[in-house]
Amino acid sequence: MPVRKLKLTVLALVLTAALGGAYSLGHVQTISEASAATLPPPVAAPQAFAPSAALPDMGSIVERNGPAVVNISVTGSRKTGNNQADQLQIDPDDPFYEFFRRFRGAQPRGGETPVRGQGSGFIVTSDGTILTNAHVVEGAEEVTVKLTDKREFKAKVKGLDKASDVAVLKIEASNLPTVKIGSAANTRVGEWVLAIGSPFGFENSASAGIVSAKSRTLPDGSYVPFIQTDVAVNPGNSGGPLFNMAGEVIGINSQIYSRSGGYQGLSFAIPIEVAMGIEKQIVTSGKVQRGRLGVTIQDINQSLADSFGLKKPNGALVSSVEKGSPAAKAGLEPGDVILAINGREIAGSGELPAIVAGMAAGETAKLQIWRNGASRVIEAKVGSFREPKVASNDSAEPNKGRLGVAVRALTPEEQRRAELKGGVVVENASGAAARAGIQPGDIILSVNGEAVSSTEQLRQLVGKAGKRVAILVERGDSRLFVPVDLG
Predict the structure, then answer these.
(1) What is the pTM of this model?
(2) Catalytic site residue 165?
(3) What are the tens digits of pLDDT across the range 266-306?
(4) Residue 135 annotated as catalytic
(5) What is the DSSP letter of 366?
(6) Residue 127 and residue 176: Cα distance in Å, rounded?
(7) 27 given a catalytic annotation
(8) Helix, strand, coil shares, percent, the chain, to 5
(9) Domains observed in the chain
(10) Which of 120, 135, 442, 485 is catalytic?
Protein backbone atom coordinates (compact mmCIF):
# COMPACT_ATOMS: atom_id res chain seq x y z
CA MET A 1 0.00 0.00 0.00
CA PRO A 2 1.48 3.40 -0.90
CA VAL A 3 2.28 5.76 1.90
CA ARG A 4 -0.09 8.68 2.08
CA LYS A 5 0.71 12.20 3.18
CA LEU A 6 -1.69 13.77 5.66
CA LYS A 7 -1.95 17.47 6.36
CA LEU A 8 -2.99 17.62 9.94
CA THR A 9 -6.51 19.10 9.85
CA VAL A 10 -9.59 17.37 11.15
CA LEU A 11 -13.00 18.14 12.60
CA ALA A 12 -13.27 18.49 16.35
CA LEU A 13 -14.36 15.03 17.44
CA VAL A 14 -15.36 13.74 20.88
CA LEU A 15 -13.34 10.62 21.55
CA THR A 16 -13.46 8.13 24.44
CA ALA A 17 -10.09 7.46 26.02
CA ALA A 18 -9.27 3.92 27.10
CA LEU A 19 -7.53 3.54 30.40
CA GLY A 20 -4.58 1.15 30.36
CA GLY A 21 -2.97 -0.82 33.15
CA ALA A 22 0.62 -0.64 34.28
CA TYR A 23 2.97 -3.11 35.86
CA SER A 24 6.48 -3.22 37.23
CA LEU A 25 9.14 -5.92 37.43
CA GLY A 26 10.91 -6.68 40.70
CA HIS A 27 14.62 -7.48 41.06
CA VAL A 28 15.28 -11.25 41.58
CA GLN A 29 18.53 -12.87 42.73
CA THR A 30 19.32 -16.65 42.68
CA ILE A 31 21.81 -18.26 45.12
CA SER A 32 23.09 -21.79 45.56
CA GLU A 33 22.09 -24.02 48.49
CA ALA A 34 25.64 -24.02 49.93
CA SER A 35 25.95 -20.32 49.95
CA ALA A 36 22.46 -19.93 51.42
CA ALA A 37 23.55 -21.71 54.58
CA THR A 38 26.25 -19.21 55.29
CA LEU A 39 24.53 -16.04 54.26
CA PRO A 40 25.50 -12.92 56.19
CA PRO A 41 22.82 -10.77 57.75
CA PRO A 42 20.61 -9.04 55.17
CA VAL A 43 21.95 -5.80 53.82
CA ALA A 44 20.48 -3.25 51.50
CA ALA A 45 20.58 -4.47 47.89
CA PRO A 46 23.03 -2.54 45.74
CA GLN A 47 21.66 -0.39 42.94
CA ALA A 48 21.43 -2.51 39.79
CA PHE A 49 22.84 0.22 37.54
CA ALA A 50 23.47 3.92 37.48
CA PRO A 51 22.46 5.87 34.37
CA SER A 52 25.32 7.70 32.70
CA ALA A 53 23.20 10.81 32.24
CA ALA A 54 19.92 12.05 33.61
CA LEU A 55 16.89 12.05 31.33
CA PRO A 56 15.76 15.49 30.15
CA ASP A 57 13.33 17.38 32.34
CA MET A 58 10.45 17.59 29.91
CA GLY A 59 7.96 18.43 32.63
CA SER A 60 9.61 21.79 33.22
CA ILE A 61 9.57 22.53 29.48
CA VAL A 62 5.83 21.84 29.31
CA GLU A 63 5.14 23.83 32.48
CA ARG A 64 7.12 26.81 31.23
CA ASN A 65 5.88 26.85 27.60
CA GLY A 66 2.44 25.26 27.75
CA PRO A 67 0.64 28.58 28.40
CA ALA A 68 2.13 30.01 25.16
CA VAL A 69 0.70 27.18 23.04
CA VAL A 70 -2.81 27.87 21.78
CA ASN A 71 -5.70 25.95 20.27
CA ILE A 72 -6.99 27.34 16.97
CA SER A 73 -10.54 26.76 15.73
CA VAL A 74 -11.67 27.87 12.28
CA THR A 75 -15.07 28.12 10.62
CA GLY A 76 -15.98 28.68 7.01
CA SER A 77 -18.34 27.41 4.35
CA ARG A 78 -18.14 25.19 1.32
CA LYS A 79 -20.46 24.99 -1.67
CA THR A 80 -22.22 21.65 -1.85
CA GLY A 81 -22.80 19.76 -5.06
CA ASN A 82 -25.07 16.94 -6.04
CA ASN A 83 -22.52 14.32 -5.05
CA GLN A 84 -22.88 13.43 -1.38
CA ALA A 85 -19.10 12.95 -1.06
CA ASP A 86 -18.69 16.57 -2.12
CA GLN A 87 -20.86 17.64 0.83
CA LEU A 88 -18.53 16.28 3.51
CA GLN A 89 -17.22 18.95 5.80
CA ILE A 90 -13.82 17.31 6.02
CA ASP A 91 -10.80 17.02 3.80
CA PRO A 92 -10.57 13.68 1.90
CA ASP A 93 -7.08 13.17 3.37
CA ASP A 94 -8.35 13.31 6.93
CA PRO A 95 -8.63 9.95 8.75
CA PHE A 96 -12.39 10.13 9.33
CA TYR A 97 -13.38 11.09 5.77
CA GLU A 98 -14.28 7.52 4.80
CA PHE A 99 -16.28 7.05 8.01
CA PHE A 100 -18.42 10.12 7.29
CA ARG A 101 -18.75 9.24 3.61
CA ARG A 102 -20.24 5.82 4.43
CA PHE A 103 -22.32 6.51 7.50
CA ARG A 104 -23.51 10.08 7.43
CA GLY A 105 -27.17 10.66 6.62
CA ALA A 106 -28.61 12.32 3.55
CA GLN A 107 -28.01 16.05 3.23
CA PRO A 108 -29.75 18.76 1.24
CA ARG A 109 -28.35 19.10 -2.27
CA GLY A 110 -26.95 22.42 -3.42
CA GLY A 111 -26.23 25.56 -1.42
CA GLU A 112 -23.48 25.91 1.18
CA THR A 113 -22.57 23.90 4.26
CA PRO A 114 -20.50 25.06 7.24
CA VAL A 115 -16.94 23.79 7.57
CA ARG A 116 -15.10 23.56 10.88
CA GLY A 117 -11.52 22.62 11.62
CA GLN A 118 -8.85 23.03 14.22
CA GLY A 119 -5.12 23.12 14.78
CA SER A 120 -2.48 24.53 17.09
CA GLY A 121 -0.23 27.56 17.27
CA PHE A 122 2.14 29.40 19.57
CA ILE A 123 2.60 32.98 20.75
CA VAL A 124 5.82 34.70 19.68
CA THR A 125 5.16 38.25 20.97
CA SER A 126 3.48 39.34 24.19
CA ASP A 127 1.07 41.60 22.28
CA GLY A 128 -0.52 38.66 20.45
CA THR A 129 1.45 37.58 17.35
CA ILE A 130 0.90 33.86 16.77
CA LEU A 131 2.46 31.39 14.32
CA THR A 132 0.65 28.39 12.87
CA ASN A 133 0.35 26.47 9.59
CA ALA A 134 -1.11 28.09 6.50
CA HIS A 135 -3.30 25.05 5.83
CA VAL A 136 -4.92 25.43 9.27
CA VAL A 137 -6.41 28.87 8.49
CA GLU A 138 -6.53 28.93 4.69
CA GLY A 139 -10.01 29.91 3.53
CA ALA A 140 -11.27 30.47 7.08
CA GLU A 141 -14.04 33.03 7.60
CA GLU A 142 -13.53 33.15 11.36
CA VAL A 143 -10.52 32.14 13.45
CA THR A 144 -10.75 31.67 17.22
CA VAL A 145 -7.71 31.35 19.47
CA LYS A 146 -8.12 29.66 22.85
CA LEU A 147 -5.50 29.99 25.59
CA THR A 148 -4.80 27.48 28.34
CA ASP A 149 -6.49 29.81 30.86
CA LYS A 150 -9.72 29.35 28.82
CA ARG A 151 -9.70 32.88 27.41
CA GLU A 152 -10.79 33.08 23.76
CA PHE A 153 -9.96 35.72 21.14
CA LYS A 154 -11.05 36.35 17.58
CA ALA A 155 -7.86 36.34 15.51
CA LYS A 156 -6.97 38.23 12.36
CA VAL A 157 -4.95 36.42 9.71
CA LYS A 158 -2.11 38.87 9.04
CA GLY A 159 -0.88 36.76 6.16
CA LEU A 160 -0.11 33.23 5.05
CA ASP A 161 2.43 31.64 2.74
CA LYS A 162 1.38 28.40 1.04
CA ALA A 163 4.87 27.62 -0.23
CA SER A 164 6.24 27.31 3.30
CA ASP A 165 2.90 26.45 4.99
CA VAL A 166 3.38 29.27 7.52
CA ALA A 167 0.67 31.70 8.68
CA VAL A 168 0.78 34.68 11.04
CA LEU A 169 -2.21 35.53 13.27
CA LYS A 170 -2.82 38.51 15.55
CA ILE A 171 -5.06 38.78 18.59
CA GLU A 172 -5.76 41.93 20.60
CA ALA A 173 -4.18 41.21 23.98
CA SER A 174 -1.20 42.20 26.12
CA ASN A 175 1.25 40.62 28.57
CA LEU A 176 0.79 37.21 26.99
CA PRO A 177 3.18 34.32 27.67
CA THR A 178 5.59 33.68 24.79
CA VAL A 179 7.89 30.90 23.65
CA LYS A 180 11.65 31.23 23.26
CA ILE A 181 12.90 30.93 19.68
CA GLY A 182 15.83 28.60 19.10
CA SER A 183 17.71 27.32 16.04
CA ALA A 184 17.00 24.28 13.90
CA ALA A 185 20.41 24.66 12.26
CA ASN A 186 22.15 23.77 15.52
CA THR A 187 19.96 20.73 16.15
CA ARG A 188 21.58 17.31 15.79
CA VAL A 189 20.02 14.07 14.63
CA GLY A 190 19.31 11.93 17.69
CA GLU A 191 18.51 14.85 20.03
CA TRP A 192 15.40 14.74 22.19
CA VAL A 193 12.52 16.96 21.05
CA LEU A 194 9.06 17.65 22.44
CA ALA A 195 5.81 18.72 20.77
CA ILE A 196 2.83 20.48 22.35
CA GLY A 197 -0.48 20.79 20.55
CA SER A 198 -4.12 19.70 20.32
CA PRO A 199 -4.24 16.24 18.70
CA PHE A 200 -7.84 15.29 17.94
CA GLY A 201 -8.94 18.25 20.07
CA PHE A 202 -7.11 17.22 23.25
CA GLU A 203 -5.70 20.65 24.09
CA ASN A 204 -2.16 21.22 25.33
CA SER A 205 -1.06 17.61 24.91
CA ALA A 206 2.66 16.86 25.03
CA SER A 207 4.54 14.12 23.18
CA ALA A 208 8.27 13.49 22.82
CA GLY A 209 10.81 11.71 20.64
CA ILE A 210 14.04 12.38 18.80
CA VAL A 211 15.15 14.14 15.63
CA SER A 212 15.25 11.39 12.98
CA ALA A 213 16.77 13.41 10.13
CA LYS A 214 17.25 16.96 8.86
CA SER A 215 16.76 18.74 5.53
CA ARG A 216 14.14 16.30 4.30
CA THR A 217 12.66 17.11 0.87
CA LEU A 218 9.03 15.98 0.53
CA PRO A 219 7.19 15.08 -2.69
CA ASP A 220 4.82 18.06 -2.40
CA GLY A 221 7.42 20.27 -4.11
CA SER A 222 7.89 22.54 -1.09
CA TYR A 223 11.25 24.30 -0.80
CA VAL A 224 11.24 23.73 2.99
CA PRO A 225 14.07 21.53 4.38
CA PHE A 226 11.89 19.68 6.90
CA ILE A 227 12.99 18.31 10.27
CA GLN A 228 11.95 14.66 10.51
CA THR A 229 11.11 13.31 13.98
CA ASP A 230 9.46 10.29 15.55
CA VAL A 231 7.39 12.48 17.87
CA ALA A 232 3.74 11.38 18.00
CA VAL A 233 1.80 14.14 16.24
CA ASN A 234 -1.72 13.69 14.90
CA PRO A 235 -4.51 15.74 13.28
CA GLY A 236 -4.87 18.85 15.45
CA ASN A 237 -1.11 19.11 16.17
CA SER A 238 -0.70 21.12 12.97
CA GLY A 239 0.90 24.49 13.64
CA GLY A 240 2.10 23.56 17.12
CA PRO A 241 5.70 24.07 18.29
CA LEU A 242 8.54 21.57 18.38
CA PHE A 243 10.91 22.21 21.31
CA ASN A 244 14.50 21.21 22.01
CA MET A 245 15.60 20.31 25.52
CA ALA A 246 16.61 23.90 26.22
CA GLY A 247 12.91 24.77 25.95
CA GLU A 248 13.41 26.60 22.63
CA VAL A 249 11.18 26.28 19.58
CA ILE A 250 13.08 24.77 16.67
CA GLY A 251 10.17 24.00 14.33
CA ILE A 252 6.46 24.04 13.52
CA ASN A 253 4.79 20.63 13.27
CA SER A 254 3.29 20.45 9.80
CA GLN A 255 2.90 17.03 8.19
CA ILE A 256 2.97 13.31 8.77
CA TYR A 257 3.27 10.23 6.56
CA SER A 258 0.71 7.60 7.35
CA ARG A 259 -1.18 4.63 5.95
CA SER A 260 -3.89 4.88 8.58
CA GLY A 261 -4.38 8.64 8.78
CA GLY A 262 -2.79 8.78 12.24
CA TYR A 263 0.76 8.84 13.60
CA GLN A 264 3.05 6.04 12.38
CA GLY A 265 6.49 7.31 13.35
CA LEU A 266 7.14 9.86 10.59
CA SER A 267 6.50 13.49 11.51
CA PHE A 268 7.82 16.61 9.78
CA ALA A 269 8.36 20.11 11.11
CA ILE A 270 9.18 23.41 9.40
CA PRO A 271 12.52 24.78 10.68
CA ILE A 272 11.95 27.82 12.87
CA GLU A 273 14.40 29.92 10.83
CA VAL A 274 12.13 29.52 7.80
CA ALA A 275 9.01 30.35 9.82
CA MET A 276 10.48 33.43 11.51
CA GLY A 277 11.72 34.75 8.17
CA ILE A 278 8.18 34.49 6.82
CA GLU A 279 6.77 36.09 9.97
CA LYS A 280 9.13 39.05 9.68
CA GLN A 281 8.16 39.73 6.07
CA ILE A 282 4.42 39.44 6.72
CA VAL A 283 4.54 41.74 9.76
CA THR A 284 6.74 44.39 8.12
CA SER A 285 5.47 44.39 4.53
CA GLY A 286 2.31 42.29 4.50
CA LYS A 287 3.67 39.96 1.82
CA VAL A 288 6.35 37.34 1.29
CA GLN A 289 9.17 37.65 -1.21
CA ARG A 290 11.93 35.12 -1.69
CA GLY A 291 14.83 34.62 -4.00
CA ARG A 292 15.03 32.25 -6.94
CA LEU A 293 17.63 31.10 -9.46
CA GLY A 294 15.35 29.45 -12.00
CA VAL A 295 16.75 25.92 -12.04
CA THR A 296 15.38 22.44 -11.56
CA ILE A 297 17.68 20.35 -9.36
CA GLN A 298 17.94 16.79 -8.15
CA ASP A 299 19.97 14.79 -5.66
CA ILE A 300 23.20 13.07 -6.64
CA ASN A 301 23.63 9.38 -5.90
CA GLN A 302 26.85 7.41 -6.18
CA SER A 303 26.19 6.44 -9.80
CA LEU A 304 25.75 10.06 -10.87
CA ALA A 305 28.79 11.10 -8.84
CA ASP A 306 30.86 8.49 -10.67
CA SER A 307 29.49 9.66 -14.02
CA PHE A 308 30.47 13.28 -13.35
CA GLY A 309 33.80 12.45 -11.77
CA LEU A 310 32.91 13.63 -8.27
CA LYS A 311 34.72 12.13 -5.29
CA LYS A 312 31.50 11.87 -3.27
CA PRO A 313 27.77 12.27 -3.99
CA ASN A 314 27.36 15.78 -2.62
CA GLY A 315 25.75 18.88 -4.10
CA ALA A 316 22.68 19.71 -6.19
CA LEU A 317 22.63 18.53 -9.81
CA VAL A 318 21.11 21.03 -12.25
CA SER A 319 18.79 19.13 -14.61
CA SER A 320 17.31 22.18 -16.39
CA VAL A 321 17.73 25.95 -16.51
CA GLU A 322 14.76 28.23 -17.16
CA LYS A 323 15.18 30.53 -20.13
CA GLY A 324 15.88 34.14 -19.14
CA SER A 325 16.24 33.19 -15.47
CA PRO A 326 19.02 34.50 -13.18
CA ALA A 327 20.73 31.12 -13.52
CA ALA A 328 20.64 31.30 -17.32
CA LYS A 329 22.02 34.84 -17.34
CA ALA A 330 24.83 33.73 -15.03
CA GLY A 331 25.77 30.90 -17.40
CA LEU A 332 24.55 27.95 -15.33
CA GLU A 333 24.01 24.85 -17.48
CA PRO A 334 22.26 21.48 -17.19
CA GLY A 335 24.79 19.03 -15.82
CA ASP A 336 26.42 21.55 -13.48
CA VAL A 337 26.64 20.40 -9.88
CA ILE A 338 26.24 23.18 -7.31
CA LEU A 339 28.65 22.32 -4.51
CA ALA A 340 28.37 25.49 -2.40
CA ILE A 341 26.62 28.85 -2.30
CA ASN A 342 28.25 31.88 -0.69
CA GLY A 343 30.80 29.58 0.93
CA ARG A 344 28.19 27.25 2.45
CA GLU A 345 28.55 23.65 1.28
CA ILE A 346 25.51 21.90 -0.20
CA ALA A 347 25.30 18.30 1.00
CA GLY A 348 22.05 17.54 -0.80
CA SER A 349 19.68 19.23 -3.21
CA GLY A 350 17.12 19.83 -0.44
CA GLU A 351 19.38 22.41 1.20
CA LEU A 352 19.73 24.75 -1.78
CA PRO A 353 16.12 26.01 -2.26
CA ALA A 354 15.79 27.23 1.33
CA ILE A 355 19.10 29.12 1.14
CA VAL A 356 18.21 30.80 -2.14
CA ALA A 357 14.67 31.56 -0.93
CA GLY A 358 16.13 33.38 2.07
CA MET A 359 18.04 35.77 -0.18
CA ALA A 360 16.61 39.06 -1.43
CA ALA A 361 15.98 39.75 -5.10
CA GLY A 362 19.05 41.44 -6.57
CA GLU A 363 21.44 39.89 -4.08
CA THR A 364 24.51 38.18 -5.55
CA ALA A 365 24.93 34.45 -5.04
CA LYS A 366 28.44 33.03 -5.46
CA LEU A 367 28.00 29.48 -6.70
CA GLN A 368 30.80 26.94 -6.57
CA ILE A 369 29.98 24.45 -9.33
CA TRP A 370 31.44 21.28 -10.79
CA ARG A 371 31.60 21.24 -14.58
CA ASN A 372 33.55 18.98 -16.95
CA GLY A 373 35.59 17.47 -14.14
CA ALA A 374 36.69 20.75 -12.57
CA SER A 375 35.46 23.22 -9.95
CA ARG A 376 34.74 26.86 -10.76
CA VAL A 377 32.86 29.82 -9.26
CA ILE A 378 30.14 31.79 -11.03
CA GLU A 379 28.03 34.67 -9.72
CA ALA A 380 24.28 34.98 -10.18
CA LYS A 381 21.94 37.82 -9.26
CA VAL A 382 19.02 36.31 -7.40
CA GLY A 383 15.56 36.96 -8.83
CA SER A 384 12.06 36.79 -7.33
CA PHE A 385 10.52 33.48 -6.34
CA ARG A 386 7.95 31.61 -8.40
CA GLU A 387 6.32 28.26 -7.74
CA PRO A 388 9.06 25.63 -8.13
CA LYS A 389 9.16 22.90 -10.75
CA VAL A 390 10.28 19.58 -9.35
CA ALA A 391 11.98 16.76 -11.19
CA SER A 392 11.71 13.35 -9.64
CA ASN A 393 12.81 9.86 -10.46
CA ASP A 394 10.87 7.20 -8.61
CA SER A 395 12.26 4.32 -10.64
CA ALA A 396 14.26 1.45 -9.24
CA GLU A 397 18.03 1.51 -8.96
CA PRO A 398 19.83 0.79 -12.23
CA ASN A 399 21.26 -2.68 -12.83
CA LYS A 400 24.05 -3.87 -15.12
CA GLY A 401 23.38 -4.39 -18.83
CA ARG A 402 23.45 -2.64 -22.21
CA LEU A 403 21.60 0.64 -22.77
CA GLY A 404 18.71 -1.07 -24.58
CA VAL A 405 16.74 1.80 -26.14
CA ALA A 406 15.09 2.16 -29.53
CA VAL A 407 15.12 5.84 -30.48
CA ARG A 408 14.26 8.13 -33.38
CA ALA A 409 14.99 11.73 -34.26
CA LEU A 410 12.46 14.41 -33.38
CA THR A 411 10.32 15.71 -36.21
CA PRO A 412 10.54 19.46 -36.96
CA GLU A 413 7.07 19.88 -35.43
CA GLU A 414 8.10 18.04 -32.25
CA GLN A 415 11.24 20.18 -32.00
CA ARG A 416 9.15 23.33 -32.41
CA ARG A 417 6.65 22.30 -29.72
CA ALA A 418 9.38 21.24 -27.30
CA GLU A 419 11.56 24.25 -28.19
CA LEU A 420 14.51 21.93 -28.82
CA LYS A 421 17.25 21.90 -31.43
CA GLY A 422 18.32 18.31 -30.83
CA GLY A 423 17.50 15.22 -28.86
CA VAL A 424 16.05 11.81 -29.74
CA VAL A 425 12.76 10.24 -28.68
CA VAL A 426 12.71 6.89 -26.87
CA GLU A 427 10.26 4.54 -28.57
CA ASN A 428 11.13 1.44 -26.57
CA ALA A 429 13.25 0.86 -23.45
CA SER A 430 14.63 -2.41 -22.11
CA GLY A 431 17.69 -3.72 -20.33
CA ALA A 432 19.78 -1.19 -18.40
CA ALA A 433 17.78 1.80 -19.65
CA ALA A 434 14.46 0.36 -18.52
CA ARG A 435 15.87 -0.71 -15.17
CA ALA A 436 17.21 2.82 -14.67
CA GLY A 437 13.76 4.31 -15.31
CA ILE A 438 14.02 5.55 -18.91
CA GLN A 439 10.56 5.32 -20.49
CA PRO A 440 9.03 5.42 -23.96
CA GLY A 441 8.29 9.05 -24.78
CA ASP A 442 11.35 10.38 -22.94
CA ILE A 443 13.51 12.73 -25.00
CA ILE A 444 17.23 12.03 -24.53
CA LEU A 445 19.06 15.35 -24.59
CA SER A 446 22.61 14.51 -23.51
CA VAL A 447 24.99 11.78 -22.39
CA ASN A 448 27.48 12.73 -19.67
CA GLY A 449 26.93 16.39 -20.52
CA GLU A 450 27.40 16.05 -24.30
CA ALA A 451 24.36 17.07 -26.35
CA VAL A 452 22.64 14.42 -28.45
CA SER A 453 21.40 15.47 -31.88
CA SER A 454 20.96 12.13 -33.66
CA THR A 455 20.54 8.41 -33.07
CA GLU A 456 24.03 7.77 -34.39
CA GLN A 457 25.56 10.29 -32.01
CA LEU A 458 23.77 8.64 -29.09
CA ARG A 459 25.24 5.28 -30.10
CA GLN A 460 28.74 6.77 -30.32
CA LEU A 461 28.52 8.56 -26.97
CA VAL A 462 27.28 5.44 -25.19
CA GLY A 463 29.91 3.36 -26.95
CA LYS A 464 32.82 5.43 -25.67
CA ALA A 465 31.38 5.88 -22.17
CA GLY A 466 32.64 4.01 -19.15
CA LYS A 467 30.68 1.72 -16.89
CA ARG A 468 28.20 4.43 -15.93
CA VAL A 469 26.55 7.23 -17.90
CA ALA A 470 24.31 10.12 -16.89
CA ILE A 471 21.46 10.48 -19.38
CA LEU A 472 19.58 13.81 -19.40
CA VAL A 473 15.96 13.25 -20.41
CA GLU A 474 12.98 15.54 -20.84
CA ARG A 475 9.77 14.03 -19.50
CA GLY A 476 6.69 16.16 -19.79
CA ASP A 477 7.52 19.61 -18.41
CA SER A 478 10.52 18.46 -16.38
CA ARG A 479 14.08 17.41 -17.06
CA LEU A 480 16.10 15.01 -14.97
CA PHE A 481 19.37 13.08 -15.10
CA VAL A 482 19.04 9.29 -15.03
CA PRO A 483 22.15 7.31 -14.04
CA VAL A 484 22.55 4.13 -16.11
CA ASP A 485 24.97 1.34 -15.24
CA LEU A 486 26.27 -0.14 -18.52
CA GLY A 487 28.32 -2.84 -16.83
Answers:
(1) 0.62
(2) yes
(3) 999 999 999 999 999 999 888 888 888 999 888 899 999 99
(4) yes
(5) E
(6) 6
(7) no
(8) 20, 35, 45
(9) 1-12+56-288 (2.40.10.120), 291-384 (2.30.42.10), 405-485 (2.30.42.10)
(10) 135
